[in-house]
Amino acid sequence: MNDLDILETYTNIIKEHTSLVPDIAIILGSGLNSFANMVNIDAEISYSSLPDFPTCTNKMHKGRFIIGTIENKNVIIADGRLHYYEGYTPKQVIMPVRIMKLLGAKTLVITNAAGGINENFEPGDFMVIEDQISSFVPSPLRGYNIDELGPRFPDCSNIYDTDLRNLLKECAANLNIPIKEGVYLQTQGPNYETPAEIKMYKLLGADAVGMSTSMEAICGSHCGLKICGLSCITNKAAGLSDNKLSDHEVIEIASKSANNFCRLLFDFIKKLNKTLNEELKECEEEEEFQ
Ligand code: HPA
């Protein structure tokens, strides 16, 4: 089986569980998985029920797809991400994104917990991802290109959709949730950074640092998904505070921010534009009417 056959096998297994076609795909970051409770669940498929599919070794990540609705929008949630630091290949890391695309998703919302590099960022802040630096991790598109999904040499000059970024900021303003915007940098992990590395990342233009997201965003952009990224700043990055970095701190702050995170994402999904299909149908109906 080639790579596309494997992805289609997973897609077909998932389709046996639900007839719902997801429109919006969401990847939940560490400590942010309570958002899954906001879904009207139609089907739940654990990664372990898919043959040879990677499992989440990080206990904060459940490892399941949830398909359902939020405010009449069809969503699929990757409740549990596969990280490069877990030892998975870049191609494995992006499998959930490709599966969600093949199931019908048009928009991908990627969320994560991140360390703040920008001195104006405080733990508990949210950051809309404006752009990313992925030069410290391999490209997930390295190797054989699946031409059916996207081009060999994809443009990356506009990975994060401007309209989606604006909508996220608008929702945050309406809800009185302070929101920042900036550049996300992905490291390989699993170790946190050294203060010297953080100084270098700052010089390079990064505002926040984490161990995920940019590979998924490249993959999503390659296969034509509209991408939106939201970071929950859980700590000041290494060397910027006296605190020792730990996953306990990351999870604690992310969990404290979960309420605002859920409100913000819920409102965003509620206000997301209608699907292209719905818009096309409306155009056709208008044309018929004229
Ligand atoms: N560095 C890397 N990943 C992270 C951090 C950090 O400071 N905080 C949360 N995820």
Question: How would you describe this structure to a colleague?
Answer:
The protein is globular and about 60 Å long. Helices cover 33% and strands 22% of the residues. Strand 7, helix 5 and strand 8 form a beta-alpha-beta unit. It has 290 residues and is of the alpha/beta class. It is built from 8 helices and 9 strands. The longest helix has 25 residues, at 247-271. Helix 4 (162-174) crosses helix 7. The chain has a 5-stranded mixed β-barrel. The mean pLDDT is 93. Residues 113-115, 192-193, 209-211, 234-235, 237, 245, 250 line the site of hypoxanthine (HPA). The site of hypoxanthine (HPA) has 13 residues, from strand 5, strand 8 and strand 9.
Break the fold down into its secondary structure elements and pairings.
Elements: H1 3-15, E1 24-27, E2 40-46, E3 64-70, E4 73-79, H2 90-93, H3 95-102, E5 107-116, E6 126-133, H4 162-174, E7 179-186, H5 195-204, E8 208-210, H6 214-222, E9 226-236, H7 247-271, H8 276-289
Helix pairs in contact: 1-3, 4-7
The structure holds hypoxanthine.
Short description:
Helix content is 33%, strand content 22%.
Series of H and E elements:
HEEEEHHEEHEHEHEHH
Computed structural class: alpha/beta
**Share of helix among residues?**
25-40%
Number of helices in the DSSP assignment = 8
Strand order of the largest sheet: 5-8-7-6-9
The backbone outline, from C-alpha atoms, is: globular
Average pLDDT figure: 93
Poorly predicted spans = none
| Small molecules held by this entry | hypoxanthine
| CA-CA gap between termini | 50 Å
Overall radius of gyration: 19 Å
Total beta-strand segments: 9
| Major beta-sheet overview | 5 strands, mixed, barrel
Give the DSSP E fraction (strand runs of 2 or more residues).
Answer: 15-25%
